[in-house]
Amino acid sequence: MTKVLYPGSFDPLTRGHMNIIDQASDLFDEVVIAVLKNPYKKDSLFTVEERIQMINELYSRMNNIKVISSSSAAIDVALLYECKAIIRGLRSLSDYDYEVQLQQINKDMSDNKINTICLFADKEYQFISSSMVKEVMRLGKDISKYVDPIVEKSMILKKRDIYGRF
User: pLDDT tens-digit profile of 99-128?
Assistant: First the structure.
C-alpha cells in the first residue's frame, strides 16, 4: 500500500487544494492530509479542528483519504505515518524554487526515505491561494468559485462571527 502525505495549513481548503487531493487520491492507495499547526501564524481564520471537520465532510465518501493534525514538521509526520512521499502542489515558478529547496531538506532529514512529489494544479486553480480567498472574503466579494460550498458557508458564518452581520 502506497501512502503519501499532503501537508498544509488549509486555512481555508481551496478548490486548488482539492484538485491536488483528487489527483493524489487517483494515484496512491492512501492520502494522509495533515492539517499542520503553525505557531507563527496568528491570523488563522479557522481552528485546526474546524479545518479537519470541513475536510472530513468534503471527503467522507472517499475511503483512501485520512485527515490528521499535527504540530510536528511534515517530514516527521510522513515518517510516523509510514508515507513514501510528501505531495506538494505547484502553481507557479516561485512555488517551484521553494519546493526544490524544501524537498532536498526533507530528503536529507529523512535519511533519503521520503521523496517529494509535485503535482500541478489544473490551470483554473493555479492562481488560488488560501490568503487570496480570505482577502476576497474580507472585501465582501464572491468566493464561490475558489472554495467548495461547504467551505464557503463556513467562511460566511465565521465572517459574521468576527465582523457581525454584513
Answer: 999 999 999 999 999 999 999 999 999 999
Domain count of the chain?
1
Which position has the grid cell 460550498? 149
Whole-angstrom distance, CA of residue 123 vs CA of residue 102: 24
**Residue 128, SS3 per DSSP:** coil
Count other C-beta atoms under 10 Å from residue 92's C-beta. 10
Name the nearest CA neighbour of 126 among 160, 90, 85, 162. Answer: 90
Q: Who wins on pLDDT, 162 or 37?
A: 37
CATH code assigned at 108: 3.40.50.620
Range of the domain at 136: 3-163
Q: Count Cα atoms within 13 angstroms, Cβ side, for 64.
A: 16
- Residue 103 φ then ψ, to 5°: -65, -35
DSSP 64-75: TEEEEEESS-HH
Residue among 123, 129, 159 nearest 147 (CA): 129
